[in-house]
Specification:
heterodimer, A: alpha/beta, Hypothetical Protein Ychn, Chain: A, five-stranded parallel sheet, 3 helices, 7 strands, B: mainly alpha, globular, Sulfurtransferase (chain B), DsrC-like_N (chain B), DsrC-like_C (chain B)
């Protein structure tokens, strides 16, 4: 599978206020169709993108946070969250959405592909990626 | 071009998708199908209903590949292929079925 590359989508911004988070998500949804190895990384304010119970009624924008939960269906295998960024914002893994992954042919499944990792691992993962899209 | 459903005029965009998702009633699918000379059967409704549930849960219209897999899982393996879905919706399950279901066009669908 020499044509398959490791794509990493690096998300660093809060979900609303700029278009970056939504644009990143849209590109991820499209990239899945090209059968690449797609992973997502959430650092800095990007960790807010994955928080549960978002309510956007007050700002008149569409709440797209439920969409992250279907990424397993789009064959995203890994969603990494930087531990230091979470802690700096008083958040823990329990505050984040869970994303299931299942291979519908083999019925192999993972309950939650969201994984909190330390800074060293973040650096390693970025290093291992063939292509990094930064949003 | 607006469409007439149950005595109400509903706005659609240039490709025929509902502008306001909340306007949707089952009659929308009936009217759109009639314009396409298509008679809706329970098999069509299974897909339309699935799309509406998926959208309700995830806030997007699924890509065709995701739809195909999900249909296979929910409605039986023999239905989880594009041949079956194109048989029901000849203009493309992503586009046509999403339009009938009142959803926006799927992301990545050209």
């Amino acid at each position: 599978m020499s044509d398959t590359k490791n794509f990493m989508f690096l998300n660093r911004r809060a979900p609303y206020g700029t278009i970056y988070a939504w644009e990143s998500l849209e590109v991820v949804l499209i990239a899945a169709a090209f059968e690449q190895n797609v992973s997502l990384m959430f650092v800095d304010d990007g960790v807010y993108e994955l928080t549960k119970s978002q309510d956007t009624a007050g700002i008149g924008m569409k709440n797209f946070s439920p969409t992250y939960r279907t990424l397993g269906d789009y064959e995203v295998r890994h969603m990494y969250v930087d531990k230091a960024s979470l802690e700096a914002r008083g958040l823990t893994a329990d505050d984040l959405v869970q994303v299931e992954w299942e291979d519908w042919e083999t019925e192999e499944s993972v309950d939650n592909i969201v994984e909190v990792v330390d800074s060293e691992r973040v650096a390693e993962l970025l290093e291992e990626s063939d292509v990094v899209f930064s949003f | 071009m607006p469409i007439e459903v149950d005595g109400k005029t509903l706005e659609t965009d240039e490709e025929g998708y509902l502008v306001n998702l909340n306007d949707w009633v089952p009659g929308v699918a009936e009217v759109m199908a009639k314009e396409d000379d298509l008679e809706l059967t329970q098999d069509h409704w299974d897909i339309i209903n699935f799309l509406r549930e998926y959208y309700e849960e995830y806030q997007i219209a699924p890509a065709v590949r995701v739809l195909t897999k999900a249909v296979g899982k929910r409605l039986g393996k023999e239905k989880g292929n594009s041949k079956y879905l194109y048989g029901l919706f000849p203009y493309g399950p992503g586009k046509q079925a999403c339009r009938y279901a009142g959803l926006p066009k799927p992301t990545g669908c050209v």
